[in-house]
Automatic annotation (TrEMBL):
GO molecular function: glutathione transferase activity
The encoding gene: GST3
Gene3D superfamilies: 1.20.1050.10, Glutaredoxin
GO biological process, one term: glutathione metabolic process
Classification lineage: Eukaryota, Metazoa, Ecdysozoa, Arthropoda, Hexapoda
UniProt-recorded name of the protein: Glutathione S-transferase 3
Length: 215
């Protein structure tokens, strides 16, 4: 059973939990106390020098970055699964959506919201505009598509919904984009174990936001 070092509220951690559920794969969950600095201890740094979560340890392999983890899990434990299709063109589209998530959508969310959450910075309208632009891109990708990368649920959807659902703790109205709204409801209702894998962590994220933003 692979070990997953994680925190429940983290969107990237939730993407890994969603993928494990979709694969019917049990993970040995190891909670990391970020506030207590557990991620900076020598034993954790040996696993992940970047001291980030999530970190997966499986059969001697230590790997971090959630999108790398989720594709690895399907490659090892879900060979042939539509979650990460083997056809080169279909896989390329899934990869593009994953890179869009980490490099554009979630990155812009992080740039906008985390300085407010952790540093008490005021909201930056220019950074909010960049998120709106990213949501327009996603809305375009989803035009005429049931899921983010075609007709089947893939790890691209699981990564993206972990990111997009996190917008719910902010004033960002992603549901004004009709294709995004439709896709969001579709994935919520069809991703295996969605409530346990994502909703519970999202509630933890909301509690963190409430506690920090009220200071």
């Amino acid at each position: 059973m692979p070990d997953l070092y994680y925190v429940p509220g983290s969107p990237p951690c939730r993407a890994v939990l969603l993928t494990a559920k979709a694969l019917n794969l049990n993970l040995n969950l190891k909670l990391v106390d970020l506030h207590g600095g557990e991620q900076l201890k020598p034993e954790y740094l040996k696993l992940n020098p970047q001291h980030t979560v999530p970190t997966l340890v499986d059969d001697g392999l230590s790997i971090w970055e959630s999108r790398a983890i989720i594709t690895y899990l399907v490659n090892k434990y879900g060979k042939g699964s539509p979650l990460y299709p083997e056809d080169p063109k279909a896989r390329a589209l899934v990869d593009q959506r994953l890179y869009f998530d980490i490099g554009t959508l979630y990155q812009r969310f992080s740039d906008f919201f985390y300085p407010q959450l952790f540093g008490g910075a005021p909201a930056d309208p220019s950074k909010l505009a960049k998120i709106e632009e990213a949501l327009k891109y996603l809305d375009t990708f989803l035009e005429g598509q049931k899921y983010a990368a075609g007709p089947n649920l893939t790890v691209a959807d699981l990564s993206l919904i972990a990111s997009v659902s996190s917008f719910e703790v902010t004033d960002i109205d992603f549901k004004k984009y009709p294709n995004v709204k439709r896709w969001y409801e579709t994935v919520k209702s069809t991703a295996p174990g969605y409530q346990e894998a994502n909703e519970k962590g999202l509630e933890a994220f909301k509690h963190l936001v409430d506690s920090l933003m009220k200071k």
